[in-house]
Design a protein that fits this description.
With 238 residues, chain A is α/β, with parallel strands linked by helices. Chain A has nine helices and nine strands. Chain A has a domain of 158 residues: P-loop containing nucleotide triphosphate hydrolases (Rossmann fold), CATH 3.40.50.300. The longest helix of chain B is centred in the middle third of the chain and has 37 residues. Chain B is mainly α. In chain B, helix 2 packs parallel to helix 5 and helix 5 packs antiparallel against helix 7. Chain B has a single domain, classed as MetI-like (MetI-like fold, Orthogonal Bundle). The chains are: A alpha/beta (238), B mainly alpha (234). Chains A and B meet through helix 3 of A and helix 5 and helix 6 of B.
């Protein structure tokens, strides 16, 4: 039995760039189940926090600790970027790539990529250049590519930004299915409706620090600090 | 103006009659250049990609030197290769001077920096796009380089064709190390130089037109085979 890489603990972790502290110090724990949604105004450090957890940013201060060795933890997580990074390949080649990198034979990787493409609704676009996809299709491709190795934890940075209602609903359905099959989800969003629909835990970030956290059903409504309430009411925070 | 027209007529006549000397010289030009470009690509493309992906202390200097070497004077390259391959040189024992192999060596030295530099430029831009994804997927450095080379293959084709263009039109270096020996090391460019020296300008011009046509045919052929302009392809 392979042990879990979770919980993920951030211990006084901070991200610095050019002498400025973008995030931190942050002390949080990401447990084994559920959907964590990070909210906060633009520039509050949501993306940097996500990148720090995933290992795309180094902790300038404090520590990021996984329950498993770092190398193992890195291979059992995935990240979906706000603007999906598409490889210059067709759809099936994009989805199969993480499998090829981790030693899966080409035929098997293609079979599983086709399977995932169909799951996310890209079954008709297998041989299309990824660059020709619409915004929603690109996000679905990125999700399929992230989920194909069945990560234990999936980070998503604004997965539905700029998508229409239908595409958003389809993406949320894919995320719900991933959650139900045991993938831990940590995501940022500006869409409070989406946060209400998906979150079992909410972190409210302001000026790089977690100002408030709430968990359980209706987590968003439990946020009580004046800043969090002002943010939820649509006030402009700096 | 008359000489240009005569050159065109000469070129047409040489091609139409399948002139044996022309076929031999053109085939040798192609063989030497294509071999040199293949070797230069095998050396320059991984080097360019490696420079794009890796960070090390003297990286900027290495890139600057590689870029500077694009302007390497062919005559100097020819002279250095000549000295290395001459009987008194360190590789004289190989007896390569005045052979097509010596010409290939000179062309490889001339084309490799060009291929490496264009590759570096193309791969650097692709690496900026791919960086976060390839780090996120937990790829090794060699996997990154392979992915970048594969996905950037159309830009690399441009690098290879630039190398081909530089090599096929080169005359200084291969004249020195090849010697322009009839039926042995004569190629289109050295033949043009020879005929010009003899005052046979229309034949020299005719050979020049054949050389230009050859370069265009190779470029079109490569682009067609690689389907660079096909819709829905990158």
């Amino acid at each position: 039995m392979v042990g879990s890489i979770l919980p993920l603990r951030l211990e006084a972790a901070a991200v610095r760039r050019g002498g400025n502290r973008l995030v931190g110090p942050v002390d949080i724990e990401i447990g084994a189940e559920g959907v964590t949604v990070v909210i906060g105004p633009n520039g509050s450090g949501k993306t940097s926090l996500l990148r720090l957890m995933h290992g795309l940013e180094r902790a300038a201060e404090g520590r990021v600790r996984w329950a498993a060795p770092r190398t193992e933890a890195r291979t059992r997580q995935a990240y979906v970027f706000q603007n999906p990074i598409l490889m210059r390949r067709h759809v099936v080649g994009n989805i199969a790539y993480p499998l090829l990198v981790h030693g899966v034979r080409r035929a098997e990787a293609r079979r599983r990529a086709v399977d995932w493409a169909e799951k996310v609704g890209l079954g008709e676009a297998l041989e299309r250049a990824a660059s020709s996809l619409s915004g929603g299709e690109r996000q679905k491709l990125a999700l399929a590519r992230a989920l194909i190795r069945r990560p234990e934890i999936l980070f998503l940075d604004e997965p539905c930004a700029n998508l229409d209602g239908r595409a958003t609903r389809e993406i949320e359905a894919i995320l719900a299915a991933a959650r139900d099959s045991g993938t831990r989800i940590v995501m940022t969003t500006h869409d409070m409706g989406q946060a209400r629909r998906l979150a079992t835990e909410v972190f409210f970030l302001l000026r790089g620090r977690v100002r408030e956290a709430a968990s359980g059903r209706g987590a968003l409504e439990r946020l009580a600090t004046p800043e969090a309430r002002a943010f939820l009411n649509g006030d402009i925070l700096e | 103006m008359n000489e240009i027209l005569e050159g065109l007529v000469q070129a047409a006549r040489l091609v139409a009659t399948l002139d044996r000397d022309l076929i031999e010289i053109a085939a040798r030009s192609l063989r030497v250049t294509v071999t040199a470009v293949v070797i230069a690509s095998a050396l320059g493309m991984p080097l360019g990609a490696w420079l794009a992906v890796n960070r090390f202390r003297w990286r900027r200097h290495v890139i600057a030197v590689t870029n500077a070497l694009m302007g390497l004077p062919p005559v100097v390259v020819g002279l250095v290769v000549y000295l290395l391959l001459s009987r008194s040189g360190p590789f004289g024992v190989l007896d390569l001077l005045f052979t097509p192999t010596a010409m290939i060596i000179a062309q490889v030295i001339i084309a490799t920096p060009l291929v490496a530099s264009i590759t570096h430029q193309a791969i650097r831009e692709l690496w900026a796009d791919y960086h976060d994804l390839l780090i996120s997927i937990h790829t090794t450095k060699s996997q990154r380089v392979r992915a970048l080379l594969w996905d950037g293959r159309r830009a690399l084709l441009t690098a290879a064709l630039a190398g081909f263009g530089r090599a096929i039109g080169e005359v200084g270096a291969i004249m020195i190390v090849g010697g322009n020996i009839d039926h042995a090391t004569r190629v289109l460019t050295t033949a043009i130089a020879l005929e010009t020296g003899r005052g046979n300008l229309s034949l020299a011009l005719g050979l020049g037109f054949v050389l230009i046509a050859l370069a265009i045919v190779v470029n079109v052929l490569v682009h067609t085979l690689s389907r660079t302009e096909r819709a829905s392809q990158w």
